[in-house]
């Protein structure tokens, strides 16, 4: 029978084999005492199976509170598998199994879901992203060979629809491909969702009629279920092309229900991600996380950026970008949303390490605070990418391009860590 | 204007005032450079405000990776407030603000949302639990003065609907109030949801007709949105009284949409909780978590149990039980679901520390593996609670009650840590 395999990083004061067996037992047919119905036939069909244990380093301090009867804690990679018979095509139940009560087990002083593999049985069971990277770029008339260039409305919250639409007009004319609401902004007292959509889409549609270029705007539709549906409809009615969701706050089931409609590219904002990822030995890593949201039908997923303003390492960001584009059940890829402290200088390393332009590359302050206004900021980002793709260096690009040179002068210092 | 106040535990190598200011800036109108639109008027209305800082201990090792330019890390309680104008009644956006990108800030080496307060403005905006503890107990004909006594179908997964119904019949006749699916079981290959509900409700309805006692069964409806709705309907059609959801896996928006229907008591299973809570300096604490699910309309929420089989301390479990019953916007309370390694022996301390019988007290192995069969297990739990409430000790109760004495003999040893 087809099996699902999950890959964990574990840390435990117990023998690795024993700890892995506890994990498998807790997440399938076992409990703390033997119960009558747990027959051999049932176990064979439904019990989780430990597929592999690869011992890593040992440490002397436990990462998280647990059963500390020892002063040595072993780390390992452990793979565990389940039959698809346990779940069928029910992803919330798969989530509850792969990342459920196992985090409560005191036999572990560290536990992180790194990745999982689904068998062929799942092919065709989920549509996944309706647009993926290619169709999302097409919606905004972005040609292959360069990333979509985007920005975020700042200040994050507080501007009226009129003020926002004015800024949008300026950004459109500056040559931007993509603009988004901040995740803090859904429908505030002075910026009701419907009015914001109407005024912003007026600007976008007018520019499209004039030039043929349709800028994508990700409106933050996050809210309760009726709000999600109503806001989605509002975007469609106003000829928008994209809806943004705070996916962790809204949750898997409602995100999938909205993505299933398939009329808009879904921008998945991962705010709250630090809660479940920041500790190296607790929570979930991006490869597993990205697969869950790809199954739900998200098209665009945040991955942070090289030399970002947050805590995440470049190595981790690169791994995330690769996760978005790796093959998975024949589904369309996710468009990685690169952001946080980006201004164009990171384009060179981003391209060098990922070798892809299927990206949404976003700069907030890097565009808005550019010395030659937003138009200069957008130009600088495009110059950076055009040159990165043909193998030029940051220094060469700065020498030959005025706007990019201005970016380096303004942001080059404090963006390096 | 009415303000929402969030209370955090923080850890930082920076000056506490500076770190708190970064948090407030990131979660409202700020970004990494000053942008043109951030006027004083806008800031006054929409910016987050640091309301208080209470310094705690300092440590020499950072809890989570961050900006480590120092060898001293200060801990503090920090309160931050926002105007309701930023959110209106939109809880996913409130979640994205209170527990969003702030977990990414490298200025912190620890950050945990402990609790939050909502102003009067929110009164009447949310129905909250449709049943709460009292009406949920009423649905199962449980009189005031004792907890609901419940159990979990074990093995968690693998039994057919016929086998499960047979076990349910046995448990009903043993005098149980409440039975639930395991969170690993939604609709497996050999136990399709609809057939399971039909056969189990047959037993429950037949017993009700005979005795007037309606046992509550929490069917795990977790799945995508269509599955949730269909499964909910199936329970209603078969005269069930309760639906279970893996709330973290399904997510806030869909849980609220289903709870809004108000025909069934909602059993909120918190599997995955360890991911966001287990580290003492990362994630969220139960008081904040319980409020979010109470707003969504969950009626019953898992809190673990005293001397549980997991890692959580008794002190933390007691705080969680109190969170469920504390007053909040005039909403009904949450029925705390006490479980994990419970067998009745913990009734005495549970009552002593919480002074409430508005509990769902669940034992799995503690009932199923009782020497006098499940009937003995249920009797033992009832004896434990009847005696705990009148102030008797475990020892006195064991002396005077055969079934409870058998529990002490079987489980008393390994249940103590």
Plain-language structure description:
Chain A starts with a strand and ends in a 6-residue tail after the last helix. The first copy, chain A, has an 8-stranded parallel beta barrel, surrounded by 4 helices. Chain A has a 5-stranded mixed sheet with strand order 2-3-1-4-10. In chain A, helix 13 runs parallel beside helix 15 (373-389). The first copy, chain A, has helices spanning 16-26, 40-46, 91-98, 132-139, 161-173, 193-211, 225-237, 247-250, 252-259, 273-277, 286-296, 314-325, 347-354, 365-368, 373-389, 394-400, 402-411, and strands spanning 3-12, 49-59, 73-83, 110-117, 148-152, 178-180, 216-220, 242-246, 265-269, 282-284, 300-302, 335-338, 360-362. The first copy, chain A, is α/β, with parallel strands linked by helices and 417 residues long. Helices cover 40% and strands 18% of the residues of chain A. At the A-B interface, helix 2, helix 3, helix 7, helix 8 and helix 9 of A face helix 2, helix 3, helix 7, helix 8 and helix 9 of B.
Rg of chain A, rounded, reads 23 Å
Unreliable spans of chain A are none
Pair of chains with the largest interface and how many residues each contributes: A-B, 102 and 102 residues
The quaternary state of the protein chains shown equals homodimer
Broad structural category of chain A:
alpha/beta
SSE ordering of chain A: EHHEEHEHEHEHEHEHHEHEHEHEHEHHHH
Strand order in the sheet with the most strands of chain A? 5-6-7-8-9-11-12-13
Fraction of residues in β-strands of chain A: 15-25%
Average pLDDT, all residues of chain A: 94
**Total helical segments of chain A:** 17
Distance between the termini of chain A: 50 Å
Number of strands of chain A: 13
Biggest β-sheet of chain A: count, sense, barrel? 8 strands, parallel, barrel
């Amino acid at each position: 029978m087809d099996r699902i395999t999950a890959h964990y990083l574990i840390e435990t004061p117990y023998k690795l084999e024993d700890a892995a067996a506890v994990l498998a037992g807790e997440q399938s047919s076992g409990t703390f005492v033997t119960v009558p119905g747990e027959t051999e036939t049932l176990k064979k069909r439904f019990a989780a199976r430990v597929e592999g244990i690869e011992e890593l380093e040992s440490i002397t301090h436990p990462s998280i509170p647990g059963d500390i009867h020892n002063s040595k804690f072993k780390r390992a990679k452990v793979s565990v598998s389940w039959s698809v018979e346990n779940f069928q095509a029910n992803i919330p139940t798969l989530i509850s199994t792969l990342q459920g009560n196992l985090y409560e087990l005191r036999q572990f002083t560290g536990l992180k879901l790194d990745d999982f593999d689904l068998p062929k049985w799942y092919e065709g069971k989920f549509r996944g992203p309706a647009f993926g990277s290619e169709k999302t770029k097409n919606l905004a008339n972005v040609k292959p060979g360069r990333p979509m260039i985007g920005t975020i409305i700042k200040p994050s919250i507080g501007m009226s629809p009129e003020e926002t639409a004015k800024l949008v007009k300026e950004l459109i004319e500056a040559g931007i491909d993509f603009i988004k609401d901040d995740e803090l902004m859904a429908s505030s007292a002075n910026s009701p969702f419907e009015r914001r959509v109407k005024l912003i889409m007026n600007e976008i549609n007018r520019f499209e009629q004039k030039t043929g270029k349709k800028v994508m705007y990700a409106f933050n539709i996050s809210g309760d279920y009726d709000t999600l549906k109503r806001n989605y409809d509002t975007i469609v009615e106003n000829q928008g092309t994209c809806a943004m969701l705070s996916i962790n706050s809204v949750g898997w089931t409602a995100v999938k229900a909205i993505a299933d409609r398939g009329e808009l590219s879904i921008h998945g904002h991962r705010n709250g991600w630090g809660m479940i990822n920041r500790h190296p030995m607790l929570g979930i890593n991006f490869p597993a996380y990205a697969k869950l949201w790809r199954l739900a039908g998200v098209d665009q997923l945040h991955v942070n950026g090289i030399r970002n303003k947050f805590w995440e390492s470049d190595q981790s960001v690169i791994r995330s970008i690769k996760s978005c584009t790796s093959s998975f059940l024949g589904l369309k890829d996710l468009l990685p949303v690169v952001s946080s402290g980006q201004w164009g200088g990171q384009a060179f390393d981003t391209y060098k390490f990922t070798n892809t332009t299927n990206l949404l590359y976003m700069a907030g302050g890097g565009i808005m605070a550019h010395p030659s206004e937003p138009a200069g900021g957008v130009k600088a980002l495009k110059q950076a990418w055009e040159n990165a793709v043909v193998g030029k260096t940051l220094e060469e690009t700065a020498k030959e391009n005025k706007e990019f040179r201005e970016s380096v002068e303004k942001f080059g210092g404090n963006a390096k860590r």
